[in-house]
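Page 47, continued from p. 46.
Same chain as before, 256 aa.
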Amino acid sequence: MQKRHLIQFPQNWSDDLNQNETYFYLIQGNERQKIRFHDYDAIYKIPGLYEQLFYDRLKCQSPNKVSEILRAAVAQTQEAFTELRVLDLGAGNGMMGEAMKKFGVARLVGADIIPEAETSLQRDRPGMYDAYYVADFCNLNKQTEDDIASWSLNCLTTVAALGFGDIPPSAFFKAFNLIQDQGWVAFNIKETFLDNQDQSGFSRAIRELIFSDYLNLYHMERYRHRLSIEGKPLYYFAVAGRKNNDVGPDFLKQLA
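Result:
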């Protein structure tokens, strides 16, 4: 049985903090360690902490939701979900991979920028992915890029990793361009990032992509991603579509 951890949320929470600045305390004996929600390297080092925090305590349902809407999108065609060769960008410790495996996929390739993600994956979900790359997609070396391309990927998934600096737009579009034309793309994004009032580079990039010729939109659904530490619902959009062609440098330049 997985060890249960003593997690404590701050009592005097400030609404001025952004979602990526949220933190909690991990109580271990007489020690109280402050950890931000996005300090994934620290969280992954502790077995079971990620799942207990985000899935047990805060009821995150994004891996299941995104995999389900991708399955619904593919079902609109004559193709089989089981023929997907997936690149899971920002794979972390394999929660999205686990959700995709339930429906069956031909190949599952994971990628994350921090080595602690792969370490926790091998510890908690060994064999989940056919291959796993620890790599910076903003500075992908040719050998790694060639290795990833050799899988002939026809699907890209990214869950709970877009919009807070975890995966910059250039990294996402690099992964987008690594999958085949007419391949599938599925991701989630916080609802406020699709608001026209948000003029940040990432927000504009995703809005432009969704309604561009690069992506044929199949399914877009607002849903409850998880709860906040106050117990309030945090809403995201789950998006599934089909890639038409690679994103060119002109598209990225106009977003700069």
